[in-house]
Amino acid sequence: MAAKHLEVPEDIFFMLNPNYSNSEANSNLASLSQYVSINLTKLDHNIEAIRSCLAANTQLWPVIKDDAYGHGAIPLAKHLSSLVHGFCVVRSSEGVRLREAGIRKPILVFEPPDERSISLFSSHQLIASVSHSRHLGLLETGCSYHVNIDTGMKRLGASVEELPRLLEVIKKRTDLRGEGVYTHFFQADDPYSPTVAKQLDQFQQLQSHFPTEWLRHTANSGAIFHYSKHLSLLYDAVRPGICLYGYSAGKQAIDLLLPILSWQSQLVHYQPIKIGESVSYGARWRAPSDGWIGVIPVGYVHGLSRLLSNQMKVRIQDALYEQVGSITMDFTLIWLGKNQLPVNTPVYLLDAQRLRANIWALKTNTIAYEITTRISPIVPRVYVF
User: Fold this and answer.
1) Which range of residues forms the domain containing residue 137?
2) How far is CA 16 from CA 262, 301, 378, 385, in A?
3) Are 147 and 174 in the same domain?
4) Is residue 378 within 8 Å of 322, Cβ to Cβ?
5) Which residues of 157-178 are buried (b: 16+ CB within 10 A; e: fewer)?
6) I need a surface site. Which of 12, 49, 109, 228 has the fewest CB within 10 A?
């Protein structure tokens, strides 16, 4: 069998990697030992799937915090800017990077402002989230803000007890620009949770104390797909997060969504193994017959969890192969059986079909969010249509 190189996607748009310039990375793409591919056509599909759950005039404020859940915030924001009304991030520093990359849409920051970050809200036109009257005291004249109300998450957001004082300070700080009020559902990933309706009722009562022209938003990914048809929770805007990237917020699959991320590597070595021989640290797997072991240059340093050892499969062409032995820092072993595949044979770890991040999540008792955010920035990202 002739040797192959890493498969290069068509219509390459952009590559983001701190170790490569764009031109170097694209010209040398075929020589890379691994990369993550982000499909922007599938991203557009997911946007339409989200819109199918909404009223026509509902604003989209995608959550692209933590580098868009590992997918790359700047490239995705550039692609989505013409399709959405604003973006949500966690830290003001994330908003600064988006502004410096040329993003001009409104950017809402979830983390409360503090003395260290306060100047960034003015200098980069970021929208603050206010959970306490002291946050308003920090904001500089002209700053915009949304009030975050806690209706049960107990993480961020103004408590019911704090709201009267907060409303007093809002009336006094006429030099600031109050623009929105929102809350966050903590069990919307469960299609049958009674807590969503309870939180919604509380928010409905509390939001009435704020100016009617302010933007109201409550719905995250789970609420958009599980509750929007029978609860009036959409208000003026929604904040799609994990659904944007093709995954359900909970265990119930959403057939409308397509994962936009795939992860590809290649064989860098292969060798024969005899029945009963072990592989990797700890001798946690032994060959069931004579055959071949393949090696890919991906390990837990790249974000492939060691907890997946002996629990995952990879795809080579149209066939699935078992990963065997302990996943190591830089390398992972594949049981090829009787197939002696050559060096440079492409190997897929994740794709949009049989190798989805939620499968890894089930194997390791976590969620798809953690799988994609764990993929290290040292793995090049390629953006394709």
Assistant:
1) 53-245
2) 15, 18, 10, 16
3) yes
4) no
5) bbeeebbeebeebbeebeebeb
6) 12
When pLDDT is averaged across residues 170-186 and rounded to a whole number, the result is: 96
Strands 59-60 and 237-238: parallel
Token match 């909970």: residue? Answer: 250
Q: Is residue 223 part of a domain?
A: yes
Range 350-354 average pLDDT: 92
Do 223 and 74 have their domain in common? yes
Note the helical H segments in 101-194: 118-123, 133-138, 163-172
Q: In the chain, how many domains are there? A: 2
Q: Is residue 3 part of a domain?
A: no
Q: Verify that 32 and 100 share a domain, yes or no.
A: no
**Which residue has tokens 């798809």?**
368
Residues 6+ apart with CB under 8 A from 333: 279, 280, 293, 294, 295, 323, 324, 325
pLDDT tens digits, residue range 224-266? 999 888 777 778 999 999 999 999 998 888 999 999 999 999 9
Please state the φ and ψ torsions of residue 99, each to the nearest 5 degrees: -60, -45
CA 372 to CA 92: how far, in whole Å? 22
Chain segment 296-316, per-residue pLDDT in tens: 999 999 999 999 999 999 999
